[in-house]
User: Which sequence fits this backbone?
């Protein structure tokens, strides 16, 4: 079980590296042309190609996942897409969002309440 989790983590890290490379070198994006899957229905706004790759990899995973994005890489959009899609598919499940600063918890809770219409507590 642990090996499978490490494989999924490795796949996610590879996607993140590809995404970072595509941002650093525009035009060489691995997802610039369509084989990118469409965004989940609950996504409140358009995602960039690398964000869509991260969300898709996360949602395809058969086990628990962690996603880490550097500051400025659109973590908020990725969180919204993952939370929205997860709640759409599993409305009776709980989703936990971890943040670094207490103010982020309040901001995320307010935003998720407004954007996704979900009960969010900070």
Assistant:
């Amino acid at each position: 079980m642990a090996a499978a989790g490490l494989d999924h983590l490795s796949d996610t890290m590879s996607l993140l590296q590809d995404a970072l490379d595509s941002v650093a070198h525009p035009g060489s994006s691995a997802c610039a042309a369509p084989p990118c899957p469409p965004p989940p229905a609950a996504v409140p706004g358009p995602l960039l190609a690398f964000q869509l790759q991260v969300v898709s990899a996360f949602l395809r995973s058969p086990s628990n996942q962690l996603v880490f994005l550097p500051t400025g890489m659109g973590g908020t959009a990725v969180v919204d897409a993952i939370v929205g899609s997860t709640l759409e598919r599993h409305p009776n499940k709980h989703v936990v969002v971890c943040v670094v600063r207490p103010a982020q918890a309040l901001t995320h809770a307010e935003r998720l309440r407004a954007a996704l219409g979900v009960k969010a507590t900070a």
The chain has four helices and no strands. Helices lie at 2-24, 49-60, 75-89, 102-116.
